[in-house]
């Protein structure tokens, strides 16, 4: 017997002036820290040390983001619009800022040992690692480095996206991956200010781009997309599952609470991921806090 509860999949109506791309605004790590703190209050004590690490990591990224001075980016003529070669030189300093901030915190010995090992990484190595994270390189990266590298890269790309000025775009372009940086989406969202439209959220730069609800985030399927949740689980975070390619993505309805964070709510609903994996559903983009 299936553990899933299907949800109504309401099609988007005709709404004038649809914005195909919505750039991020402000420092996303500020509210993310607060959402992690709320998670810790209600979480079992056995998870407190893990959530506390996520809080410290996000706080370090918050300050690195705030201190990052960056000129508005020049854009490519076609998607992805952000130029990696222009942004990667910022990465080593942001990464070192985050590592230094974490070194000042009281953290577990195993985390401290990783921070010590990463302190010796050269700028050239860090940029090579960043290229690998962007899918442009093949350098082998120690698994324990990934959360720190990923959040530093996110800080750089989100900051650049907030400063960008977009050219006029047509809705019908129908991007599968992020039109700004080319990464896959971490989730789809419904936000109260978006007129009931579904947007995908980039896993790296947090740009949102419009995607009609009846279309798959990964393949050309424009038929039925199932919206699933676990029986008995009351959460605004569900999963969109495609019967054609068997890929799924988390879906967050923020119409009643716009402060909800896609990364935090994703981590709070990992039981849904485990069940989907048992049903041979595949997720194409991983939450950076689990890397």
UniProtKB/TrEMBL annotation:
<dbReference type="GO" id="GO:0005829">
    <property type="term" value="C:cytosol"/>
</dbReference>
<dbReference type="InterPro" id="IPR006452">
    <property type="entry name" value="Formate_DH_accessory"/>
</dbReference>
<dbReference type="InterPro" id="IPR024064">
    <property type="entry name" value="FdhE-like_sf"/>
</dbReference>
<feature type="domain" description="FdhE central">
    <location>
        <begin position="178"/>
        <end position="213"/>
    </location>
</feature>
<feature type="domain" description="FdhE C-terminal">
    <location>
        <begin position="216"/>
        <end position="290"/>
    </location>
</feature>
<keyword id="KW-0963">Cytoplasm</keyword>
<dbReference type="GO" id="GO:0051604">
    <property type="term" value="P:protein maturation"/>
</dbReference>
<dbReference type="Pfam" id="PF24860">
    <property type="entry name" value="FdhE_C"/>
</dbReference>
<dbReference type="InterPro" id="IPR056796">
    <property type="entry name" value="FdhE_C"/>
</dbReference>
<protein>
    <submittedName>
        <fullName>FdhE-like protein</fullName>
    </submittedName>
</protein>
<dbReference type="Pfam" id="PF24859">
    <property type="entry name" value="FdhE_central"/>
</dbReference>
<dbReference type="GO" id="GO:0008199">
    <property type="term" value="F:ferric iron binding"/>
</dbReference>
<dbReference type="InterPro" id="IPR056797">
    <property type="entry name" value="FdhE_central"/>
</dbReference>
């Amino acid at each position: 017997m299936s553990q899933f509860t299907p949800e109504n999949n309401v099609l988007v109506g005709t709404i004038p002036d649809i914005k195909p791309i919505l750039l991020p605004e402000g420092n996303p790590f500020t509210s993310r820290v607060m959402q992690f703190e709320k998670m810790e209050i209600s979480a079992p004590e056995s998870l407190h040390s893990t959530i506390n690490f996520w809080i410290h990591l996000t706080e370090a990224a918050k300050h690195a983001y705030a201190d990052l001075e960056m000129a508005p980016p020049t854009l490519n003529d076609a998607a992805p619009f952000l130029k990696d070669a222009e942004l990667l030189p910022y990465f080593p300093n942001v990464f070192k800022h985050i590592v230094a901030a974490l070194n000042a915190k009281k953290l577990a010995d195993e985390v401290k040992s990783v921070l010590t090992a990463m302190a010796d990484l050269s700028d050239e190595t860090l940029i090579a690692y960043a290229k690998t994270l962007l899918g442009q390189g093949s350098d082998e990266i120690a698994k324990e480095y990934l959360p720190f590298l990923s959040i530093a890269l996110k800080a750089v790309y989100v900051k650049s996206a907030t400063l960008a000025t977009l050219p006029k775009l047509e809705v019908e372009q129908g991007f599968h991956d992020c039109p700004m940086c080319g990464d896959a989406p971490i989730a789809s969202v419904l936000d109260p200010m978006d007129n009931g439209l579904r947007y995908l959220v980039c896993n790296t730069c947090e740009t949102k781009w419009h995607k009609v609800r009846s279309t798959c985030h990964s393949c050309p399927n424009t038929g039925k997309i199932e919206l699933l949740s676990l029986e008995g689980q009351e959460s605004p975070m569900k999963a969109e599952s495609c019967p054609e390619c068997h890929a799924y993505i988390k879906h967050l309805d923020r119409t009643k609470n716009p402060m909800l964070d896609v990364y935090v709510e994703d981590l709070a609903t990992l039981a849904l991921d485990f069940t989907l994996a048992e049903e041979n559903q595949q997720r194409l983009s991983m939450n950076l806090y689990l890397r």
